[in-house]
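Retro notes (design track)

What went well: tokenization of the new backbones is finally stable.
What didn't: we kept losing track of which sequence belonged to which structure.
Fix going forward: every design gets posted as structure first, then sequence, in one message. First example under the new rule, 154 residues:
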């Protein structure tokens, strides 16, 4: 299996009102959500394919808008292990795709100014094609990490 490591850019900030690319709310922020995850097919291969579509929501002129998550950091780890196995970023359409060996993984989505999502215990079988849609919400005064345990699901 080819392993591609992409460097991550971390932008620090001190203010609680404006931070990162999107800015943050002085209040609670917007909730990050797992919209959909499902197995959509089988390939004739030993590896599994994971396709993800990432969007983010933010308030613009007192209206909530959804945008493609361009440049969202995606980290894949073996379940229960904090070491990154593979990492990458989403493309201009907010899409990320990777091939993985069959197993159980934790997949994390991080974007500056947004609340991260962690999908725990994503089970992949050989040849499976799995798709997920996630929506990152803009952070408030504090970062809220949204975790979804998928043990025995999907």
């Amino acid at each position: 299996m080819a392993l591609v490591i992409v460097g991550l850019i971390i932008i620090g900030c001190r203010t609680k009102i404006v931070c990162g690319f999107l800015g943050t709310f002085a209040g609670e922020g917007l909730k990050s959500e797992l919209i959909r995850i499902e197995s959509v097919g089988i390939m004739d291969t030993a590896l599994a394919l994971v396709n993800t579509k990432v969007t983010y929501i933010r308030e613009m002129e007192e209206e909530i808008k959804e945008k493609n998550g361009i440049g969202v950091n995606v980290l894949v780890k073996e379940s229960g292990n904090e070491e990154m196995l593979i990492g990458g970023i989403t493309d201009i359409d907010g899409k990320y795709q990777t091939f993985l060996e069959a197993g159980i993984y934790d997949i994390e989505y991080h974007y500056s100014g947004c609340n991260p999502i962690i999908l725990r215990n994503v089970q992949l079988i050989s040849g499976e094609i799995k798709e997920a849609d996630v929506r990152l919400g803009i952070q408030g005064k504090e970062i809220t990490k949204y975790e979804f345990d998928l043990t025995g699901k999907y």
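Added context from the reviewer: The chain has one domain: 33-149.
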